[in-house]
Amino acid sequence: MKKSILILILIISMSLIGCSSGKIEETPETIAEEKANDEVETKDEEIPINPEDIMPEITILEPDSIGTVYMEATYTNNSKYPITGYSADILLKDQNDTTYLSTYDTVMPGETSPKFESFGPETQDPDDYEILTLEITARTEDGNDLYIEYDFKLNEATWWEAD
């Protein structure tokens, strides 16, 4: 009886090990590698949407009743593509922390986005925040999604199109 239980435990252990080995193939490294293979660097081509055409207009708000400072933003879509996703990573210099201004409302060319907000610098000083990155999802003429990532520290952009 003890021998059959040990054999059963061994069989179950081996099957679990076998199942988990299939999942190892989809590690973050392999996903990033696949994504990198699809990306197009900006050095040889013009950026489909220039970051200056969609920069956010940020307003720092007065602290709320418990003293939390927020900032709100909008952007005007001056590109030829409808934008379906917009996310900016913002460094709050006074707190040495990162916050995110994001909206996933569709903004057609020529339109201004609805207001979206996030935490702001406690000092309420516009010099105490810095836009680090901007990630955009847009819709191309043929209906595909266009993903663009801007890194303002490196002054680089990458983009790729997905069916």
Features:
163 residues; alpha+beta; six-stranded antiparallel beta sheet; three-stranded antiparallel beta sheet; 20% helix
Computed over alpha carbons, the radius of gyration is 23 Å
The whole-number mean of residue pLDDT values reads: 83
**Which structural class matches the secondary elements?**
alpha+beta
Spatially, the strands of the biggest sheet line up as 1-9-8-7-4-5
Helix content: 10-25%
Strand content: 25-35%
Q: How many beta-strand runs?
A: 9
Shape: globular
Order of helices and strands: HHEEEEEEEEE
The termini sit apart by 57 Å
Question: How does the major sheet shape up?
Answer: 6 strands, antiparallel
Description:
With 163 residues, the protein is α+β, with helices and mostly antiparallel strands. 20% of the residues lie in helices and 35% in strands. The protein is built from two helices and nine strands. The protein has helices spanning 2-23, 28-38; strands spanning 40-41, 57-60, 70-74, 83-92, 97-103, 116-119, 129-139, 145-151, 156-162. A six-stranded antiparallel sheet has the order 1-9-8-7-4-5, with helices on one face. A three-stranded antiparallel sheet has the order 2-3-6, with no helix packed on it. A hairpin with a 5-residue loop joins strand 7 (129-139) and strand 8 (145-151). The protein is globular, with a radius of gyration of 23 Å. It starts with a helix and ends with a strand. 17% of the residues are buried. Mean pLDDT is 83; it is low at 20-32 and 35-43.
